[in-house]
Design a protein that fits this description.
With 327 residues, this protein is of the alpha/beta class. It has two domains: 2-145, Rossmann fold (3-Layer(aba) Sandwich), CATH 3.40.50; 149-304, L-2-Hydroxyisocaproate Dehydrogenase, Chain A, domain 2 (Alpha-Beta Complex). The chain has eight helices and 14 strands. Helix 5 crosses helix 6. The two termini are 32 Å apart.
Length: 327
């Protein structure tokens, strides 16, 4: 049985993720960590969750703390802490401010729970995953981000609606940045096991409009209701379940790659990866020429922003010696 810790549990995504994660059979404890001063809110969350578990018939223990050091003994640490995005902001506008939070959090997590998995949700997620890897001192397989998993699910839903099929019949994925430069892999998209390009109606597929909808999906939801909650919360639970269940599923997450995709790498970015109890392992794949070009551009963008953010952190971060950094 596993202990899952959620850092940033007083936020919308963190508190809902606690509920979705509690449904995973492998979980026996969910620890909610929030900022000092939010003890009453955290206690209220735990009591509310306990009532929910009792109604559902789930034997999971909700706990709370305001000390990151209490991650000790965690199997997975989900980090949703950070400054939320406003409707007019790009995810990368949050980079430096949130990087300071992630650096401190990752460092403590690496010290207190060095054998755990560190799962980053905070935006911009690709850059924050690199920061977490650098400052945690963990192995690359232990540190991953939500990446383009939710984007891939958004595209999957749009394709299912267009072809009027059950969403489970659609297999597709988006790689690259969780942001404007994301790249859809139409060459790897299938419906009922049939490549989408072999379906007669594919020629009329509004691919560009679909991707515009995917790219603006989060911004639109934030504008309309203030925050994205249910989609990220369910996506988080899917990845936690995949790790704890040792499922060996291939999902698209932000992970550190060296040269698995056409020799492009040395960055944390959204790629297909095999996920199990040991961690996250990027899958070498071959892409079509246009997809390679798009992925290369996305990698170069994220690599440049990551380098800039890490350089700024090096000048300001003073919480210890980081000889174990890998990025």
């Amino acid at each position: 049985m596993a202990k899952v810790t959620i850092i940033g549990a007083t936020g919308n995504v963190g508190s809902f993720a606690a509920h979705t994660i509690s449904e995973i059979p492998h979980v026996h404890e969910v620890l909610l960590i929030g900022r000092p001063g939010r003890e009453e809110f955290l206690e209220g969350c735990c009591r509310d969750l306990a009532d929910s578990f009792a109604a559902r018939g789930t034997h999971v223990r909700p706990m709370y703390s305001t000390r990151i050091a209490d991650v000790e003994g965690s199997d997975i640490i989900v980090c949703t802490a950070g400054v939320p995005r406003r409707p007019e902001q790009d995810r990368n506008d949050l980079a430096v401010e949130n990087a300071k939070i992630i650096a401190e959090t990752a460092e403590i997590a690496g010290q207190r729970a060095p054998d755990s998995h560190l799962f980053i949700v905070t935006n911009p997620v690709d850059i924050m995953t690199a920061v977490a890897l650098r400052y945690s001192g963990m192995e690359p397989r232990q540190v991953f981000g939500l990446g383009t998993h939710l984007d891939s699910m958004r595209l999957k839903s749009l394709i299912a609606d267009y072809f009027k099929v059950h969403v489970s019949e659609v297999h597709t994925r988006i790689i690259g940045e969780h942001g404007e430069s994301m790249v859809p892999l139409w060459s790897a998209t299938t419906i009922g096991g049939i490549r989408i390009c072999n379906l007669p109606t594919f020629s009329g597929l509004p691919a560009r409009e679909m991707m515009d909808t995917v790219r603006s999906g989060g911004r639109s939801i934030i504008k309309n209701k203030g925050a994205t909650i249910y989609g990220p919360g369910e996506a988080i639970a899917t990845l936690v379940r995949t790790v704890l269940g040792d499922e060996n599923r291939i999902l698209t997450v932000s992970s550190y790659i060296k040269s698995e995709i056409h020799g492009i790498g040395e960055v944390c970015i959204g790629v297909p990866a095999r996920i199990n109890r040991k961690g996250v392992f990027p899958i070498p794949i071959r892409l079509e020429e246009s997809e390679v070009a798009g992925f290369q551009a996305s990698v170069e963008k994220i690599r440049a922003i990551t380098a800039d953010v890490l350089e700024q952190l090096e000048r300001t971060h003073t919480a210890g010696d980081h000889k174990e950094r890998r990025v």
